[in-house]
């Protein structure tokens, strides 16, 4: 079978490339590699029960006890695994923001972080084997343990400035995408004394209630509702609520790089400095903002587990990606949608309305280009660009980043598709476009002549 795990676990279309045979073998493989009590949770997809049952059967057949936590956010499962020492690992049944016909399996390590590449590789290797089952008297048991969702919300609330948030008398509109946050995020807002109007908050409803990716185009109902009810903030989760995006009080969708910068500023100010971790692809707006309040930005390769690992190693105060995946180390080292809500509310209470805060940010323009590129040419394209560019400041953290005083360019092959991408960011739109044009031509002529 070879490599199964993508950047976010194993995913596929139900009863085509994701089915009960795969799920059961996956359960056997995970249970053999990370043996012990396994906590299992799902999002709200139609196929959740089917896959959960198959994964659990596989786990029990190799002697693992299964603790089923119900339909809860991925970070709630991660918090349960982290805080229960008897639990060896977690399995989340979710396909995050993918359309409803998809589902997937994601593995959580004993410390609550996403499984490492090494653990995933060991599970993949085991998956390809005939995995022996245990004798009849060693088969694992199955228990439904409710309450992980409430414990997670209590933990988030305990980290926040509850009095200040309550006193502000805020109103928000919350879009749960009929997903895993249906119980936790409304409960969180109630406990914080925030008036919340919830849309797509029905776990029995049609998942996810709008096209599945939490982008501006797919959140028009939320944006309109924020204006209609004069809310201070709009909040939207993806299907498993590890991510969170925001809408300001004027109904404007806030791009993830701006959210990252605003939260980073607030957290660095509250800490009196500190390190913020984000991948090489994130906008420079975060460097400007964090630098202005005495903090420092450190860049990593793309992927939230890499960001989380760097934060652990360096003692970073905040980290995240511009897709709404935000990591708060005082809670846990993984993307956390509920903590993101809490910290954003604090940020508004302390630093003013979100639209004022975004208006104060410097403006950058980004040009993104996508080219077809055979997998076996990807490295050669990178080497060609590296040796043919006139730009001296080169960074090979992930792909090739070229940095000058008035723009940066990131050339990066896709890890999963035969595609090569170029991003250019500059305060000068014309410069961004022309630079992207030039490098796109270089890449295309190299590929066509190769
Ligand atoms: Mg997600």
Architecture overview:
The strands form four sheets. The protein has a six-stranded mixed sheet with strand order 1-5-4-2-3-6, sandwiched between helices. The protein is globular. It has 15 helices and 21 strands. Helix 2 (48-61) links the parallel strand 2 and strand 3 (66-71). It folds into three domains: 10-146, Alpha-D-Glucose-1,6-Bisphosphate, subunit A, domain 3 (Alpha-D-Glucose-1,6-Bisphosphate, Chain A, domain 3, 3-Layer(aba) Sandwich); 151-359, Alpha-D-Glucose-1,6-Bisphosphate, subunit A, domain 3 (Alpha-D-Glucose-1,6-Bisphosphate, Chain A, domain 3, 3-Layer(aba) Sandwich), CATH 3.40.120.10; 365-449, 2-Layer Sandwich (TATA-Binding Protein). The chain is of the alpha/beta class and 450 residues long. The model has no long low-confidence stretch (mean pLDDT 96). The longest helix has 21 residues, at 429-449. Magnesium ion binds at residues 96-97, 238, 240, 242-243. The site of magnesium ion has 6 residues, from loops.
Task: List its salient traits.
single chain, 450 residues, Alpha-D-Glucose-1,6-Bisphosphate, Chain A, domain 3, six-stranded mixed sheet, 15 helices
